[in-house]
Amino acid sequence: MSESLKNEIVNENTSDTSTENMVNIETELRSEIALLNDKYLRAIADAENTKRRARLDAESMSKTRMVRLATDIFPVLDAVRAAIANATDIQLDGLLLIEKSALDALGNAGIKPIPTVNAIFDPKLHFAVNTEKRDDLAKNTILAELQSGFTLDDIVLRPAMVMVSA
User: Fold this and answer.
1) b/e map of 135-158 (b: 16 or more CB within 10 Å)?
2) What is the pLDDT, as a whole number, of residue 106?
3) 102 alpha carbon, distance to own chain's centre
4) Strands of the sheet with 155-158, listed across from one edge
5) pLDDT tens per residue across span 39-90
């Protein structure tokens, strides 16, 4: 075999080996890129989940504080309403203003009174403490509110104590 033919065969083998090596390197690089891209996307998703969890935790803590404050205010509001029932004309205006201010403050926090009188009794919202036979009203119509109930969003903070028609 001539020297040039030997060189040509060696060059072809080297060229084939080089091409295989390059293909292998390219395959490894593509795998590495895919792996790094996957890690990058997971890191972004983890960061977004952490932000979302932090926001939800902050909202939950805020709601918990509102609920605690509201449950502390309910007895005060009950006392004001009891005072209104027994107030003189001179006291009445001041007590009504206090009641309105307390209800406005609760409303600003998203805490709403549960509708009662003439509403239909709902055991999720109302607590019946008495019944009265009434032929002029549908059964389970609320006749009187004995203690106000309140909700925050869909959460019942305190059910309304009511008297219901039988």
Assistant:
1) eeeeebbbbebebbbbbbeeebbb
2) 93
3) 25
4) 111-113, 150-152, 155-158
5) 999 999 999 999 999 999 999 998 888 899 899 999 999 999 999 999 998 9
Tokens for 23? 């293909």
Angle at 78 between CA 75 and CA 84, to 5 degrees: 145
Residue 10 predicted with pLDDT over 90: no
The amino acid at residue 37 is N
Task: Give the 3-state secondary structure percentages of the chain, helix then strand then coil, rounded to 5.
Answer: 60, 20, 20
Rounded to whole angstroms, the Cα distance separating 139 from 142 reads 9
SS3 category, 90: helix
